[in-house]
């Protein structure tokens, strides 16, 4: 890839997309584990479902590229996976979907930026297709968000907060 992170080949672009999907899988599974530890099974299940969806996307990319094994690690990381710092042990499904929506928007913007910078028509078209796929994910998440009530204003109040004894 070039210094600004624009891939030069379809293989580089798809390796980036694959890495983003795998990063999201790992992060969502990590969130699910944290939510289980904090006895928040509903949110843990939602994170597991998101991880499964991202894993499927990664498998689809690998299959389309004919990769028997994942591509070698890429030099520059791209946005897409939310940070564990964004999680709260009392978060609710609405919060999970907001994190996922933010991640999908970052991925959409990332691929749109690549498409805007590409001079190769085939590469630009592939980046646009990935951008459109991410837009589809955004619309699905927005539909889910519309179905879920907003959390109460005191959603993070805990009368018995965790205590860490060293």
Automatic annotation (TrEMBL):
It comes from the Bacteria. InterPro entries: Ferritin-like (IPR012347), Ferritin-like_SF (IPR009078), Rr_diiron-bd_dom (IPR003251). The lineage of its organism: Bacteria, Pseudomonadati, Pseudomonadota, Betaproteobacteria, Burkholderiales. It holds the Pfam family Rubrerythrin. Residues 12-142 form the Rubrerythrin diiron-binding domain. GO terms for molecular function: metal ion binding; oxidoreductase activity. This is Ferritin family protein.
């Amino acid at each position: 890839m070039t210094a600004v992170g624009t891939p030069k080949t379809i293989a580089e672009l798809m390796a980036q997309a694959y890495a983003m999907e795998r990063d999201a899988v790992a992060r969502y599974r990590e969130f699910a584990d944290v939510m289980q530890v904090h006895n928040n099974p509903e949110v843990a299940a939602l994170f597991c479902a998101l991880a499964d969806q991202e894993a499927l996307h990664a498998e689809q990319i690998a299959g389309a590229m004919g990769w028997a094994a994942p591509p070698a690690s890429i030099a520059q990381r791209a946005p897409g996976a939310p940070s564990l710092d964004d999680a709260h042990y009392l978060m609710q499904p609405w919060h999970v979907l907001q994190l996922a929506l933010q991640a999908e928007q970052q991925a959409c913007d990332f691929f749109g930026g690549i498409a805007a910078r590409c001079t190769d028509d085939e590469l630009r078209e592939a980046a646009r297709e990935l951008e459109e796929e991410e837009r589809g994910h955004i619309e699905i998440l927005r539909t889910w968000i519309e179905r879920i009530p907003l959390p109460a204003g005191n959603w993070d109040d805990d009368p018995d907060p965790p205590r860490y004894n060293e």
